[in-house]
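Intended use. Records like the one below are meant for learning the mapping from a protein sequence to its folded structure. Do not use them to infer anything beyond what is encoded.
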Amino acid sequence: MTLLSNGTSTDTGPDTSSDTVVPSYVLDSWWTPDTDVVAQRVLDASTGAEVARVSSDGLDLAAVVEHARTVGQASLGELTFHQRAILLKKLGQYLGGVKEELYALSARTGATRYDSMVDIDGGIGVLFTLSSKGRREMPNSQVYIDGDVEALSRDGSFSGQHIYTRIPGVACQINAFNFPVWGMLEKLAPAFIAGVPTIVKPATPTGYLTEAVVRHILASGILPLGALQLISGSARDLIDHLDYRDLVAFTGSAGTARTLKSHPNVVEGGVRFTSETDSLNAAILGPDAAAGTAEFDAYVASVVTEMTSKAGQKCTSIRRLIVPAGRRDQVVAAVSERMARRVTLGDPRAEGVTMGPLASTGQRDEVLASVARLIDGGGRIVMGSADAPTGTDPGGAFVAPILLAFHDPESPAVHEIEAFGPVASIIEYTDLDHAIALAARGGGSLVTTVATHHPDIARTLVLGIAAHHGRVLMLDRVDARSSTGHGSPVPHLVHGGPGRAGGSEELGGIRSVLHHMQRTAIQGSPDMLTAITGEWHAGAAVRTGIHPFRKSLAELRVGDQTQGGPRVVTLADITAFAEATGDKFYAHTDPEAAAANPFFPGIVAHGYLLVSWAAGLFVDAAPGPVLANSGLEKLRFVTPVSPGDSIRVTLTAKRITPRETEEYGEVCWDAVLHNQNDEVVATYDVLTLVAKE
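Structure written out for the chain above:
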């Protein structure tokens, strides 16, 4: 590891005078406290120079909450899931154009350019991902249907359905200091798509960067009124003003999470509370991953990255290296060599620096105190030093990477004490069961990496530790280069973990949107379910007459229906289809073998023959609004069809999804095939693209 003096750095960040108070944005306007308020000083992480001051004294938080519940709920409620998702995409594009300014400001938090990319670009990436998934996986409406309809009566007159609707309150998002941009955007995005207004409360040491992002968001003019508010400084009595309509999403220390969870409005008042807290994440080196293997090298690279990225200030950083007995010294040597060769500690604005300081001197002191406790608990430093790094600004919050070794892998300290910085500990296991037990000693964590190329080892370890972790990364020679990494949550997958990690989930694609919604079971007749969900249910009213394929999206309604048939199936038809397709499965071609099959009465028609014929029975052939068949879903064959049987088809407009940015939309049609005895032969959904006009 190389130390680079602060003397060579150049501060290219925005000018921020020492008497500037970071403002809040509430009630759709900027707010600052009275000039005589004593504000908390915020310092440059590398130099100790004052960057700004922060205070929320005098802020009417009750009014902030009420503004979200009224103005924010009303403006977001006018939009559909797709419309909100498109606004997120536009916001991502806008923020992508101001990244350089944000990078410069981010450097004052101690972040290198790579660290800033993880924070800033990562946050913008969440906007794009959630926007895309919202448009692809949710309807263009305000109700999300969960699962299939449940029949509750013999005649179909009474059914049940689960739906999701947005919670009627506000999402209060309390974020940690280490990700002032990503932490806000990854919570804002799903709440926004759900249609729930957000109140952001960033951590004070880096909240000035969050404020800069909010300022740009507002300048874009993209978000509707009341959708976003910002509290700079203490949130004080915020939870006092919340109730069962609201949600609090917290990221930070387990101690603070416990305090917030114990608030009467959470315990008794029904405030939804999710937390993502500190976590003693592990990296297990498989017994097959010996020195010289690609897995060993990938493991070492991952450890160095996670110890130094954001100066180890990540809730997902590797804290425990769990390696096979006898391999500890090899791992320590390899980590030390890579650290010395690739890591340069210093002011992130200086050329060549790859690791910056901690976010504040207070954070530095906490990390060093935790290192001392780890030593008292049986650890010894085998790489690095707890002394102040030479060549760095004494006013900065610098800590060199530290690796401790524990002779006793069962030592409570290694499984209970987290130094939230560039600090990790290494312990040895005797067999896979021991490795699993050691990983579980962390009491629940966000992520563990398993480095192995042996499928049986991977299966044993993953199934043994999965229930103790929110995410498991399997690292080997195949994915070492393409992997997003141990410490990088992705918006497609859940971020969170059981036990000490907080016991909650964030992200996870559309799951994160549903966290901001209420699942409700609705019961009623098919017509009532159709009216509420906007999706046609079997037994609900239908409209016939003009063929629905002659109707544009503007004219088409759910329940529009056409029928076709009957058509008689002959043995010659089945034989010809077998010859034309090459599908000569015995049930279609061999009478004796087919008769011996307990599922068939003898020769039967191909299911795909019936589906093809059904299309011929319901299609209107002339050019019209229907542009293309885009898919077929949920196909089920129910009753076999023999030569001499006939089929007929009923096609009903089930769901209509206009696309916001195209001149067409998608229509899902409910298709049902019956035979001459009115028995259901097959059911499926047909997807078509239909012009709006």
